[in-house]
Write a structure and sequence with these properties.
single chain; Helicase, Ruva Protein, domain 3; 10 strands; N-terminal domain of MutM-like DNA repair proteins; four-stranded antiparallel β-sheet; elongated; 2 domains; alpha+beta
């Protein structure tokens, strides 16, 4: 699943080609995504893109009036084709630009979203109750510490809750908890403020490094230019079950926590 760094990489890839460009036509080949693609997406035609932003894992493409909210789901990708080719299987939506380029949305599993919003995109119900961005000043150790008191939920599930903080998905949660030395099953309410300081620093670090390297190479993810991300070679625990821990040599373990595969070192993480 594309996580925050992959979505941020996509945003940075498409922004130079879309900003201030006019939409000539919107083509919907298959509207059957997580939510049906509404007919109103064609309201974009004749309008210019005025800003592109990311909120959590949502891409917000604002036009002169209204805009598009896009989520990549489990396997979605966005690519800008300066010389559009014939659509392939799973190319569900094209946004053709006045300069001849095309923004193409591909989603094999169809868990993504391509929505139209009238008015302010940030006020949409999908975004209204989201937690702070993990790279923002609002995301602090004190914020996590205060919000976790008397919480028995596993710390990994706690930091993956979008109402707590957005964009910390399965890969980067596993990595950050390893870097902070915290066992993924430890109750969030039993993590000290000092350890939360280490966790916040680890989350910021792992996400920033992944963004700089274009995201993590996953089976279904490609950048907006079609190239894979290159962060996978730096993963410390994720998808390394049975391999030696880089710090202590113990075997990395895998365990399902909250219906998601989690990876950790039993010696380094407490």
């Amino acid at each position: 699943m594309p996580e925050l760094p992959e979505v941020e990489t996509t945003l940075r890839g498409i922004e130079p080609y879309l900003l201030n460009q006019q939409v000539a036509r919107v083509i919907v080949r298959d509207s059957r995504l997580r939510w049906p693609v509404p007919r109103e997406v064609r309201n974009a035609e004749g309008q210019q893109f005025v800003s592109l932003q990311r909120r959590g894992k949502y891409l917000l493409l604002a036009l002169e009036q209204g805009g598009l909210i896009i989520h990549l789901g489990m396997s979605g990708s966005l690519r800008v084709l300066q010389h559009p080719t014939d659509p392939q299987k799973h190319d569900h939506v094209d946004v053709e630009l006045g300069n001849g380029a095309c923004l193409r949305f591909n989603d094999p599993r169809r868990f993504g979203a391509f929505l139209w919003v009238d008015g302010n995109l940030q006020s949409h119900e999908l975004l209204r109750d989201l937690g702070p961005e993990p790279l923002s000043d609002a995301f602090t150790a004190d914020y996590l510490y205060q919000g976790s008191r008397k919480r028995s939920v596993a710390i990994k599930n706690f930091i993956m809750n979008g109402h707590v903080v957005v964009g910390v998905g399965n890969i980067y949660a596993s990595e950050a908890l390893f870097m902070a030395g915290i066992h993924p099953q430890r109750a969030a309410g039993r993590v000290s403020k000092q350890r939360y300081e280490g966790l916040v620093a680890a989350i910021r670090d792992v996400l920033s490094r992944a963004i700089r390297r274009g995201g993590t190479t996953l089976r279904d993810f490609v950048n907006s230019d079609g190239a894979p991300g290159y962060f996978a070679q730096e993963l410390l625990v994720y998808d390394r079950a049975g391999s030696d821990c880089f710090q202590c040599g113990s075997a990395i373990r895998q365990k399902v926590i909250g219906q998601r595969s989690s990876y950790y070192c039993p010696a380094c993480q407490r």
